[in-house]
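Lab channel / #folding
Pinned by the channel admin:
"Please post every new chain as: sequence first, then the C-alpha cells as a reply. Keep commentary short and put observations after the output so the thread stays searchable."

First post following the new format, from NK:
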Amino acid sequence: MAELMSLHDAIASAVHDGDTVAIEGFTHLIPHAAAHEVIRQRRRDLTLVRMTPDIVYDQMIGMGCARKLVFSWGGNPGVGSLHRFRDAIERGWPHHIELEEHAHAAMANAYTAGAANLPFAVFRGYLGVDLPKVNPSIRRVTCPFTGEELAAVPALRPDVAIVHALKADRAGNVLIEGILGVQKEAVLAAKRAVVTVEEIVDDLGDRSPNAVILPGWTVAAIAAVPGGAYPSYAHGYYPRDNAFYLGWDEIARDRDAFLAWMKANVLEQGPEAFARHRARLAA
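Reply from TO:
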C-alpha cells in the first residue's frame, strides 16, 4: 500500500544503483522534481526507460546517472536536440551509454505486456522500417490462428516507475487527468512505484471522463511536491514554461554551463524550489 513520505525518503527507498527506472509523463505531468532527487542522491548505472526522453533525461544523462536508455523518441520538444544526450552518444561524456530505440507503439505495448505479466508484446508494426536492423529486441512471430506475421518486443518491467500526478488522497489513491501518457501502464508494470503529486486531499472530488485513478495498492510511495512537474505543466495548476525549454538549449550546449546550472538549481536546491515556480506561473 502507498505510504506518504518526503521526496528524499521516497527516492531513497525505491531507487537503487543499477535499477531499471521508468520516468513517464507525456508533455504533461513530467516528474522533474523526482528526477532531480535521483540526481541529488547520485544514483548510478541506471537503465532509463521513457517513451519521450526530453529535458529530464538530458539532465540525468549529463549528470552520469544513466548506463542505458530505452526510448522511442528523444529531443527538446519544439526546440531541437538534447545536447547532453548527444554528447554522451557522440563523445562519451560523462560516459558512453547504450541505446535501445523503439517506436511509440512498441513502448506502449511493452508496458502493457509488463503490466499483464506477459513475457512479450505482440502488435502490428515495424513494417518497412529499419529499426529491426539495429535493435535485436525487435522480432517477428506468426499468429497460430491466422498465420499473420506480427511484431514482438520484450515486455517492459521496470524496477521502479516514477510519475507525477495531480492529487492523492490519504488512502494513497492517485488522480491523473488531462493529457495522459503511459503512466498507468508503467506503474502497473513496475515492481514499485513512486508518485509525486501537487497536493494531498481528503477526497479526490469530481473528475473528468478521461481521468485515471491509480489505487493505493499499485503505489509504494507518495510525496507531495507542489510544482513537481515544472517546467512541464499540471492540468488546472500551472501552465508549461515554454521559455525554459528555449533557454535549456543554450544551457545544455556547453558542459561547464550545464554543470554550473545543475549545481545551482539541482544539487544546491530541494523540492521546495518547484513550489516557487508553480506560484510564479499560476499568478
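NK: The chain has a mean pLDDT of 96.
TO: also worth noting, The first strand starts at residue 3 and ends at 4.
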